[in-house]
Amino acid sequence: MFGWEFPPHILGGLGTASYGLTKGMAKQDDMEITFVMPKPRGDEDKSFLRLLGTCNTPVVWKDVNWDYVNQRIGKYMDAQEYFHLRDHLYADFSFLHTNDLGCIDFSGRYPENLLEEINNYSIVAGVIARSYDFDVIHSHDWLTYPAGIHAKYSTGKPLVVHVHATDFDRSRGKVNPQVYGIEKDGMDHADHIITVSNLTRNTVIEKYHQDPKKVTTVHNAVEPLSPEVEAITSLKGTKDKVVTFLGRITMQKGPEYFVEAAAKVLQKSKNVHFVMAGNGDMMNQMIRLAAQRGISDRFHFTGFMKGKQVYEVLKSSDVYVMPSVSEPFGISPLEAMQCGVPTIISKQSGCSEILDKAIKTDYWDIEAMADAMYSIITYPSMAEYLKEEGKKEVDEIKWEYAGWKIRNIYESVIQ
Fold this sequence. Notes:
Blueprint: H1 13-25, E1 34-37, E2 50-53, H2 66-73, H3 79-93, H4 114-129, E3 137-140, H5 145-155, E4 159-163, H6 167-170, H7 177-189, E5 192-195, H8 198-207, E6 215-217, H9 227-230, E7 241-246, H10 255-268, E8 272-277, H11 283-292, E9 299-303, H12 308-315, E10 319-322, H13 332-338, E11 343-346, E12 359-361, H14 366-378, H15 380-394, H16 399-414
Parallel strand pairs: 1-2, 3-4, 4-5, 5-6, 7-8, 7-10, 8-9, 10-11, 11-12
């Protein structure tokens, strides 16, 4: 598997999904997973997989004790392949900026030179693919598609690409042609394509011109709450109701619709606070919008949150809202419902395909969104029903089940 994020250091849902899926798949007795990412930090959970960093993989050999290297790498490739690889790397990749060990540095984030990092990642992917024994290649999202292609043609093994989002989702239709080109190239070269929702599947078929027979939806799931998370209690120090938006504050997530709906709720009830937890390029714009609507005293911007902080916010909330304009799936509503928080989601989200115990509105319908918020905070019986039934529903949406569906896809491409 090629990925870009892995907990605890994540910037979005991609890392959460990568962790949950691999942990669920690892429950299959004969499943061995090697997960490759740009820059591990050392505190990742490696109990159920092998975690490799491209930042730790030499691609240009410099002043190396070759007897020692041969002992280490010889476990994974025969001598002829080993020497061919060594000569090939020195001849072709010596132009790369590497450290004294011959490794390329990676930020492990989403830097301004992201396209350069994606290219470098794909170069190292070819080295790693020839160094390990495996049956199938699995690339998570567009950042790793070039790596998957490189690994496929280096080894002849089948490639599965996993579409967690497309640039049509991230850009509200203002697609970056370079990103679109990388996405389409990955899909064109894949032996099979996994999408996280039927919404995304339709985009892949219609916008990227893929054969429907080649595209399968496997909905995301949610990790069971750990005892540590179960023990977290509400930090709310007021009887006022709390309505929460938690996620990246970007145009894809529809934060302006949350603020506008909040203003309408506050026209009816003053005993409610609104929390916008997260960060993004629209954060300052949302702060100004709250001020323009005269609701700044009832609005709280927390900044980026992760780990325990996320669950502290959720367990302190009376309502969770995800008003995304185009959400391929959306794991955060499942996490909120898991914590017993009544949830409102946009009909334009992939998770709406599998959730029945959440209220669904169009992202642009701020009247309906405001009515849903007001109803939940005003009618205790409604809130209690959504709390109890929502938790029951998401407790049955497990990564283990998603893992078996993906295993079936693996077996089909291997055959």
